[in-house]
Amino acid sequence: MYRNAKWISAALVCCLFSLLALAQQQITAGQKTEVKGLITTRDGDSLTIQTNKGDKVVAQISDSTKVQQPKGVFRHTEMAETNLIPGLAVEVKGVGTENGQIQASTIEFTAHALQTARTIQAGLTPTKEQAAANKDATEKNAAGVSANAEKVETNQADIQAANKRFTELSDWDTKGVAMMTFATGSAAVSPEGKAALTQMAQDAKPLKGYLIQVKGFASTSGDAARNQQLSDERANAVVTILQQDGVPLRHIVTPAAMGTADPMASNNSAEGRDLNQRVEVKLLVNRGVNATSSSK
């Protein structure tokens, strides 16, 4: 009986080690692999993924990496690399590298995951889709408005919790700042603004793992829908110029349309509105990457 008990104990230990081995994410060089999890940091061409098993895996992206959103069982919509932002839940497929990372061939995420991550990044600023949904609900009936208000409050509580998580995920150093203003109702970047963006693109080239953050704003000159659209168009106009100056899309964080949020001055004067019709651009480097580079 003692021998049997001893044998059973050994078997249990073997099973335990087998289960632990299965739980640990293994990345083998040259083999196809797949991970699911949350992007915690993004450093230019690399993403750090906190997997659903609790491991951290680094995925390398390149011009050949397909970034897509599923549209059914067999169909996908191609998405820009700018959507790969911290807080986004993704599924990464690729091949293991010699240093235990993944060279990503495809990165997929759902529309819901992207909307959540964008809202976190925008600092609780409602998206155009949310604004339209709220408007539709308001037009239905008073009961619908009340129910929708409860949903909004619940959603904002969830977003606040996620926003706290987002701010704790990454620690960035700001290496450059640029701001450009726009004429009322316009998304055309001025010559001075183009010069500032060209300089930022040049400053970014020698940096390791940089990202450029773009936020578009509007004054209260137009209606809410038009202001939101203008802030979006202004941010995208800046992204286009950065691309023309040689900045790859994967180094640009999803441009945020902030609408009339965070005014720099009062919208009651023409001078104040001119300041609020702007785009803010930041050149960022992850502090961990920066510290690693400077210690070499």
Q: Taking Cα atoms only, what radius of gyration do you get, to the nearest Å?
A: 23 Å
What is the strand tally?
A: 11
**Largest pleated sheet:** 5 strands, mixed, barrel
Helix content: 40-55%
Derived from helix and strand composition plus strand pairing, the structural class reads alpha+beta
Number of helices: 8
What order do the helices and strands follow? Answer: HEEEEEEEHHHEHEHEHEH
- Low-confidence regions: 1-24, 124-129, 154-159, 161-166
Main sheet: strand order = 1-2-3-7-6
Strand content of the residues, in percent?
A: 25-35%
N- to C-terminal separation? Answer: 60 Å
Morphology = elongated
Average the pLDDT over all residues and give the rounded result.
Answer: 77
Descriptive key words:
four-stranded mixed beta sheet; disordered N terminus; alpha+beta; single chain; 25% strand
